[in-house]
Amino acid sequence: MKKVLETDRLLLRELTVEDADNFYKLNENPNVIRYTGDSPFEDIQEAYTFLQNYKDYEVNGYGRWAVIDRSSHEFLGWCGLKYDRSKDETDIGFRFFEEHWNNGLATESAAACLKYGFEKLNLKKIIGRAMSDNIASIMVLQKLGLTFDKEFDFDGHKGFIYTIQKNR
């Protein structure tokens, strides 16, 4: 398990196959995946296989990271950066168990990820994608300093792309 980042309340580390149970439970809640375009995993084994085959750290040097409560060591969700080779762009993403919504965890973890992306990875631009109905995620992106760029088709729904540049 490789620790990547720390904030006042959170520890961000690489995802491992040991996270399969939490990963499965996270995507099992329809409210959590409502605006993601993702389907729930069929079972814990499918989540395990997904994590086993998750190669973003090796291929790109970064990826989505498990978000752990520093005091309780509880798995709260995930946050991180994802490189899309076909578009040559990196996006910020986050997903948390519903009982942890509205506690500033997405903002806190994503702010640390943006800083890491700009300062450690020397990225020039990071984007955020959200379905237009996903007001909570849009508010997080705006709080982080991302600004509206354009609309796009998000799996048949209206989506928005927000961007932030290094040294903005």
TrEMBL record:
EC number: 2.3.1.57
Domain of life: Bacteria
GO molecular function ontology, one term from the record: diamine N-acetyltransferase activity
EC top class, as a word: transferase
Residue ranges occupied by any N-acetyltransferase domain in the UniProt entry: 10-167
InterPro entries documented for this protein: Acyl_CoA_acyltransferase, GNAT_dom, N-acetyltransferase
PROSITE patterns cross-referenced by the UniProt entry: GNAT
Pfam family, one: Acetyltransf_3
UniProt keyword terms in alphabetical order: Acyltransferase, Transferase
Protein name per Swiss-Prot or TrEMBL: Protein N-acetyltransferase, RimJ/RimL family
Source species taxonomy: Bacteria, Pseudomonadati, Bacteroidota, Flavobacteriia, Flavobacteriales
Gene from which this protein is expressed: speG_2
